[in-house]
Amino acid sequence: MSTEFDFEFDFPFLKELTEESGVPGYEDRVRDLVRREMEGSTDEVRTDAMGNVVGTIEGDSDYTVVVAAHMDEIGFMVRHVTDEGFLELDPLGGWDPRVLRAQRVTVHTPEGTLPGVIGSAPPHTQDEEEREKKPKVEDVHVDLGMDGEAAAELVSVGDLVTMRQTTEPVGEHVTGKALDDRVCLFAMLEAARRVEDPAVTVEFAATVQEEVGLRGAGALGVDTDADLGIALDVTVANDIPGYEEGEQVTRLGEGTGIKLKDSSVITTPPVTRRLRSVAEEEDIPHQLEVLPAGGTDTAELQRAGGARPVGAISVPTRYLHTVTESAHREDIAATIDLLATFLETETGEHDYAL
To answer: How many whole angstroms separate alpha carbon 262 and alpha carbon 154?
Structure first.
């Protein structure tokens, strides 16, 4: 039985984006893909000193909307190469050490990439204390399959490590690494393709270093003189065994998420109301998101460089910060639809004042 289906969007490009590597501060490969796409769909593309990429579609008025999604994924930096040839790592972003055992990785060096594995000792060789020991990221090591001398010749402190995983359809879901936040970056770029002759100027911003403190969006918030900010990021979908309904935040297959709050931001109520109104008028499946913990670029768009109204759109995603992050294809399509329709109907005359 085949599990293939027709996508309502450019799945090969989503696969390309999510499988590419780009940890905080080193988003170069993803940035190249973003610039390639923006050059065909926006009027002007620029990159700032931090590496944020902004593609602008000029509108018929001076009113400006900035849309942001981040390029970086969680990963690691090599902090030490042992005499035996193992790599010790420093995390870039928030890792749950429980998901790291027995994973394949890619080590990025100036001369090219190397395959490696994060080892896990067989349970029958461990004593009770070792089996019950709480894992720590600091205890993770990468095995390159070579001795210390060979490893030291090829790998240096400061080289980068990313998880090695493909992006595949699984039933009606898309599963892989770095859907956080490449699936939203993809949605933003797809919306940019659709938006033509807007009434307002739209700046599509691919931001950097979100996973280490919303740093790129903070700089962007100062540098851009936007009147309204819309951020896109994944959100928790704990619609899996072990969670009560009230703990699930969102559910896969029930539509794009319209954020009301997370731990970094309370979105501007009039903006949220208009997002809901657009979704309802256009029959775009949607659900409301109240996220107890976790922050997004929305917060920096709201306050960096002065206050501005903000809204946020989310793609519900299971298993965040793992290599099996999973989103529903219809929720991805709904996210693109809502963003594109919102921008196409923005006139600059809506009252977002409090």
So the answer is: 42
Backbone angles phi, psi at 157, to 5 degrees: -55, 135
CATH annotation of 11-73+177-344: 3.40.630.10
> Distance (Å, rounded) from C-alpha 227 to C-alpha 31?
25
Q: Under 8 Å CB-to-CB from 222, ≥6 apart: which residues?
A: 304, 305
What is the radius of gyration, based on Cα positions, of the chain? 21
Active-site residue numbers?
Answer: 210
CATH superfamily of 75-163: Peptidase M42, domain 2 (2.40.30.40)
H helix runs in 10-63, sequence order: 11-19, 28-41
263 secondary structure, DSSP code: S
| Sequential pLDDT tens for the chain (354 residues) | 344 567 889 999 999 999 999 999 999 999 999 999 999 999 999 999 999 999 999 999 989 999 999 999 999 999 999 999 999 999 999 988 888 988 999 999 999 999 999 986 555 555 565 556 677 888 889 999 999 999 999 999 999 999 999 999 999 999 999 999 999 999 999 999 999 999 999 999 999 999 999 999 999 989 888 999 999 999 999 999 999 999 999 999 999 999 999 999 999 999 999 999 999 999 999 999 999 999 999 999 999 989 999 999 999 999 999 999 999 999 999 999 999 999 999 999 999 999
Distance CA 339, CA 336 (A): 5
| pTM (two decimals) | 0.94
11-73+177-344 matches 75-163 in fold: no
Question: Roughly how many angstroms between the first and final C-alpha of the chain, as a whole number?
Answer: 54
Q: Is 14 helix (H, G, I), strand (E, B) or coil?
A: helix
